[in-house]
Amino acid sequence: MSDASLSDATLSDVTGRLVGLVEQVTELPGLTTESRFQNLDNWTSLAALRLLTDIEDTFGVQLDLRAYFAIADIDQLSELVTSALAAR
Amino acid sequence: MHTDEDLLARIRAVRGPDAPADPGLLAALAGLTAPTARRDAGRLLANVPPARITPEGRALRPLRVAIAGTFTAENVAPLLRLELLRSGIAPELHVSGFDQLLVELSDPDSELARFAPDVTLCLLHDEALLPLDWDPADIETLSGPAAHRLAMLEQAVAGFAERSTSAVVLHTVPLARAQQRRVIGYAGRAELGAAWRELNQNLLDLGARHPSVHVLDFEALLVDHPGPVRDDRLHRFGGIAWTFGVEAEFAREAAAFCRATAGRTGKLLVVDLDNTLWGGVLGDDGPEGIQVGGGYPGSCYTELQRGLLALKRQGVLLAVCSKNEQSAVDAVLASHPELLLRPDDFVARAANWGRKDHNIRQIVETLNIGLDSVVFVDDSPFECDLVARELPEVKVVRLSGDPAGHLAAVLEPQFFGALSTTATDRERTGMYRARAERADFAASFASANDYLTGLGLKVTVAPADEFNLPRLVQLAARTNQFNLNPGAHGESRTREMAASVDHAVLGFEVSDRFGREGWVGAAWVAKGPDHWLVENFVMSCRVFSRGVEHAVLAHLAELARAAGATTLHADYRRGERNGPAASLVEAFAETGATDGATDGTTRYALDLSTADVAVPAWIELDRREPTHV
After folding, report:
1. Cβ contact A53–B244 (<8 Å)
2. 3-state SS of B222-251?
3. What is this structure's pTM?
4. B40 Cβ under 8 Å from any chain A Cβ
5. What confidence tens digit (pLDDT) does each residue in B219-242 have?
6. H or E segment to which residue B527 belongs
7. Mutation for B interface: A24, A53, A59, most B CBs within 10 A
8. Residue B91 neighbours by CB under 8 Å, 6+ apart
9. Which of A20-24, B10-14, B331-335, B375-379 has the lowest mean pLDDT?
């Protein structure tokens, strides 16, 4: 397996798991990677912190809150988590 | 993880206004494992009527619980809801906003006051007591203002307690590491530690000064908590003073308190004996062979007994429920030098070969207490599963793994909480023992079929071969209870018989849905032209009372008939310990002493032309063909 396909596989896996976590926290099924957090029902700062805890628990990373709250959708969240995973 | 997701899906299915009922769901909630899944379950269950997830006829105890904090405490609510539901309590929860504790307590017309809680949980964090700026060179600048704040809290709590019927729960407070690190001198840190302990000491004293106020020593529990108390990001951003793990820990403690308030606590602990109260099997190892006292692992069982004795002294009733001979149990409890628990410490001692669910029912009826106040402790997955299934109200503690963990397994779920204990609690065992004194605990073996059918019992019978023969010989030597003829068949005799055409040695294996028990017994048979003789039959006590011996007997009868024999004989030398083996010959006729026997051996006979010996319906018998050794 080449490096490129390996990182692709890892990336899509991260995104998929994040979609699941966001669906779980918001109780909204059928989200996409472009769904914007601000437009989601049930999206409160406590829900955001619950999602943070779940992400950190699932991936074993710690995120910078400033970067975390600057994020608009799951695509960007995936980038943040992936770079946190790489920095471990 | 998979089960967690299945359970969350089941919860989602009962959420809509017209959702169908799922009466088994409440019991299934016990299977939630991941802490985040428990939190999600508690959140999803917020607006589900408890009746929808409860079996017909079982009502949950309603309880109004308020959560008010000096910080953002609303994450505790879903965790607490789940813990309470699992305890048989239907909670109505009220959560106050960020830092609303003092306001809500003080205002007679606050939302909290109007909610009229049964229990008010007051969640505190260090910054609520600390002044913002204290001088690390002068700890007085901390302790003075902190004492003042605590006095204000006490005043608010006392006022609220006076106006309300609620129990008010406070707790001791851990000091954040960063606060301690502010002080660089070791003498100063010691002084800070002393000042902080004094605050917690004063908190603990509030319970004694105000009758409806109770104080959990939460700081002491956090010593064992894996992980930090605070996530500074969540604290600074959202005013959340505790990490998720600490929230869960508090929810567990608060739920235990609520159970005690609601009277949902255990009154009777029913305990198994072999490999539970002591290590080993009394019937096989003898009183001198069981493990208790001395060094490891006997010391673990001693510690468990010490813990049970402590429960007894606080009013919890203890009872024995063991598959054993009653006389052997009574003797060992009365006279074993290392046992801490003695016959008088138990309100009832049921030692027999009957079903444990029947025994427990009988004990409970004799004592006239509810099944829902019973906690059952046993090491056998079979017994635990049977009791959990037949008596769903009973709390079951299954001991497994290292015996050093057994006491914690019994105490940690906090089934026995009480708001306070009194002098009469010490006398309770004596009072109840009088009720049970004349009861004869002889639970039946009958009507086990329904349960045993679901067990998927499989018995495999196979002639002795090179692989299993050493194990069969070992079983003959070590089995004292189900043994027709103790000590009769050693290795050389067994090899001779296995190789002879006029004899057979058959071993049997048992498996069920809990797994394989392996080789658990064997039969030594002499094959005559008209009569077959069972010279010996042994079976491990692990598989008693499941009909296994009857399945093997049916197989032997079948083989004997096919070989043209008309009678099956069995020789039984009844001694002190091998009473249980009588179950094998219960369908046989006694024919008197075996010819020439002077050791008390009796011959039993089964007429194969008339006798009806069948494999029990709940057992699948697998007959292996003899392989030539």
Report:
1. yes
2. HCCCCCCCCCHHHHHHHCCCCCHHHHHHHH
3. 0.83
4. yes
5. 999 999 999 999 999 999 999 999
6. strand B515-527
7. A53
8. B62, B63, B64, B65, B80, B81, B84, B85, B258
9. A20-24
Find out whether B166 and B222 touch, Cβ atoms under 8 Å. no
Quickly tell me which residue has 């006095």 as its tokens.
B151
Give Cα B448 to chain centroid, integer Å: 22
Interface test with A, best of B71, B233, B235 (most A CBs within 10 A): B233
Residues of chain B contacting A46 with CB distance shorter than 8 Å:
72, 74-75, 238
- Using a CB-CB distance cutoff of 8 angstroms, which residues of chain A are in contact with residue B75? 46, 50
* Cis geometry, peptide bond prior to residue B297 (ω within 30 degrees of 0): yes
- Burial readout B68-100 (b: 16 or more C-beta within 10 A, e: otherwise): bbbbbbbbbbbbbbbbbbbbbbbbebbbbeebb
At B343, give phi and psi (nearest 5°): -50, -40
Is the ipTM, as predicted for this complex, more than 0.90? no
Beta-bridge partners for B268: B317, B374
CB B475 within 8 A of CB B522: yes
- Find the residue in A nearest to B234 (Cα): A49
- Rounded Cα gap, residues B547 and B620, in angstroms: 11
Q: Do B237 and A24 touch (CB under 8 A)?
A: no
Contact between A65 and B238 using a beta-carbon 8 Å cutoff? no
- Most B CBs within 10 Å: which of A22, A44, A46, as the mutation test of the B interface? A46
**Euclidean distance between CA atoms B415 and B260, whole angstroms:** 9
DSSP A33-81: TT-BGGGSTT--HHHHHHHHHHHHHHHT----HHHHHT--BHHHHHHHH
Cβ partners under 8 Å of residue B573, min gap 6: B484, B485, B486, B488, B597, B599, B600, B601, B602
Rounded alpha-carbon distances, angstroms, from residue B237 to A59, A64, B77, B517, B592: 22, 12, 20, 56, 88
Contacts of residue B291, Cβ cutoff 8 Å, sequence gap at least 6: B278, B279, B280, B297, B298, B301
Q: Is residue A33 classed exposed, middle or buried when 0-12, 13-18 and 19+ CB atoms within 10 A define those classes? A: middle
- Cα nearest neighbour of B9 on chain A: A24
**Residue range B88-140, pLDDT digits in tens:** 999 999 999 999 999 999 999 999 999 999 999 999 999 999 998 999 999 99
Phi and psi (nearest 5°) for B274? Answer: -60, 125
Minimum Cα–Cα distance from A49: chain B residue: B234
Q: Tokens 């999602």 map to which residue?
A: A51
Look over chain B and give the mean of its residue pLDDT values, rounded to a whole number.
Answer: 91
